[in-house]
Design goal:
Elements (H helix, E strand, L loop, with lengths): L8 H8 L3 H8 L9 H14 L5 H8 L4 E6 L5 H16 L3 E6 L20 E5 L3 H5 L8 E4 L10 E3 L3 H15 L3 E7 L4 H14 L5 E7 L3 H13 L7 E4 L2 H13 L9 E3 L16 E3 L2 H16 L13 E3 L9
């Protein structure tokens, strides 16, 4: 028995009672402002009922577009970037785009250039500035680039989408000051990145004129590095810090381990704060006071900006994504 012929856009148009041009607009994700929500819904329902799928290859030949974008992030072992991908992919799907995910190497080794094998297959790129090794080899080939957590003055990007990490650092600094802490150690990410430089400047500015002592100790973004950095600063000569402010929740968990090894009670003897609000932050005891970064929202805004650029719109740099302080059990007034 012969298979039933594959449904066409003409079949969908007949079923929905619209023109083929309307079907093309809806299935191509270009109906906003041209077709009502009611008609778009009717077209989608007719397409689903008939099992219609657009001929993407033919459409790509006509438009010169592949409806495919690349998201470049550090390895997805970091929960933040997994959430960011979720937000970005949801927006991409709403506009008919597929997302190719390129995580840079987790071991810090050299990254293979992801653009060499099939450069023509991508319409645009959304990238985190933390994937610096990949971006250093970025040959744009005319592809639009939107950057996340990056210097807005970066001329290579069409626009940037940033979390308000400076405000996050101000919030956590003000929280510690309000509790009465005046001897604070900053476990700073030992990574050359715009976002971490912004945090350090914001912390220094927040403590200026308060009489607080600030000591900065760099650390790689691992639990062991956080533990070692915390032990170093807590064993140093002189008056011991009463609070450790960490650039990353994983560093803060390492600091908790260091405090336990040294016989210090958290928060009675030492307050510790993190940054990101990973699931880990509420899995430890005491639970971490930390800055919540809305990763899905950052991914959503980033992909929205890229889609706008691909539609030949030139958006101004979006407002920074707000962040919030989550106060839990790891902070208290100094003894």
């Amino acid at each position: 028995m012969a298979d039933k012929a594959r449904p066409t856009s003409r079949d969908v148009a007949r079923e929905a009672g619209v023109s083929q041009a309307t079907v093309s607009l809806v299935c191509g994700g270009k109906w906003h402002g041209r077709v009502s929500e009611r008609i778009a819904t009717a077209v989608r329902e007719a397409a689903d009922a008939l099992g219609y799928r657009p001929n993407l290859a033919a459409r790509n030949l006509r438009t010169g577009r592949t409806k495919t974008v690349m998201l470049i992030v550090p390895a997805l072992t970091n929960q933040y970037y997994a959430r960011l991908y979720t937000g970005a992919a949801r927006v991409a799907a709403q506009h008919g785009f597929g997302v190719v995910l390129y995580p840079s190497p987790a071991d810090g080794g050299p990254a293979r250039n992801p653009f060499g094998s099939a450069p023509a297959s991508l319409d645009g790129v959304l990238a985190s500035s933390m994937a610096a090794d990949v971006l250093a080899d970025f040959d744009d080939g005319g592809r639009p680039l939107v950057m996340l957590d990056s210097d807005p003055a970066n001329s290579r990007a069409a626009t940037t989408v940033n979390l308000d990490v400076a405000d996050g650092m101000r919030q956590v600094a003000e929280h510690l000051l309000a509790l009465g802490h005046r001897r604070i150690a900053h476990l700073a990410a030992g990574v050359e990145s715009w976002t971490f430089a912004v945090r350090s400047r914001a912390l220094a500015a927040a403590l200026e004129g308060t009489g607080a002592e600030l000591r900065t100790v760099p650390a790689a973004l691992t639990m062991d590095a956080g533990r070692h950095a915390a032990e170093t600063v807590l064993r140093a000569p002189g008056r011991r810090p009463t609070a450790l402010l960490c650039d990353f929740d994983v560093l803060a968990v390492g600091a908790l381990k260091a405090a336990r090894r040294l016989g210090l009670r958290v928060p009675a003897d030492l307050s510790i704060t993190g940054f990101d609000d990973l699931t880990l932050a509420s899995a430890v005891e005491p639970e971490l006071t930390t800055v919540r970064l809305p990763a899905e929202e950052a991914g959503r805004r980033g992909m929205t900006a890229l889609v706008s650029v691909l539609a030949d719109e030139r958006p101004a740099r979006p407002a920074d994504v707000p962040v919030s302080l989550v106060v839990r059990g790891s902070t208290a007034p100094p003894a």
